[in-house]
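re: ur msg from earlier - yeah i can do the adenosine monophosphate complex, just paste it... oh wait u already did. ok heres what im feeding in:
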Amino acid sequence: MDLRNGFDIKRYIRTIPDYPKPGIMFRDITTLLANPHGFRACVDELLWPFLEDRVDYVIGIEARGFILGGAVAHELGRGFVPIRKKGKLPWKVIGREYKLEYGVDRVEIHADAIKKGDRILMIDDLIATGGTADAAVSLIQESGGEIVSAAFVVDLPSLGGAAKLRDAGIKVHTLVEFEGD
Ligand code: AMP
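and the outut:
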């Protein structure tokens, strides 16, 4: 079930040590997105398990989740809904605080963006501790949405985020893993 046809997505991800603060190995996907084969391969791989599922909306988490989620939504022929950082959305929102690998933040969604029973494919570039994804899942569920899956290009398994989501009953799809954090 590997559609990669030998394309090595991981090789195109740049690692920047000590960014944005000492001790963090930042996995930079801009180098992957800039490669035409890389961008297409990761969008294809993010969506292929869901081609036969009912997906009503693709949700992307700011900011890199917008690039990937937008492309996935377009490819699936579905609408895109953003989950944004605090204070960015212009209409009535619901929000959740969460702990990031490097700080504290809040994500928000328009209160009327999705309705009860909508089936959601949630996309972000990377899952680390799972704090961001967990907050996004809460917002989707509070809105009445059902999560088809959460999909990420990169998993940092040692930080346990993907395992936590799976333990909470969320299907998780990831493309590449980096050991350590
Ligand atoms: P977390 O909430 O800990 O799962 O962190 C995931 C979010 O933070 C994603 O939106 C990532 O873009 C960003 N992030 C966290 N850790 C890293 C990392 N080591 N490299 C790149 N992005 C990261």
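cool cool. The longest helix spans residues 64-76. ping me if u need the other ligands too
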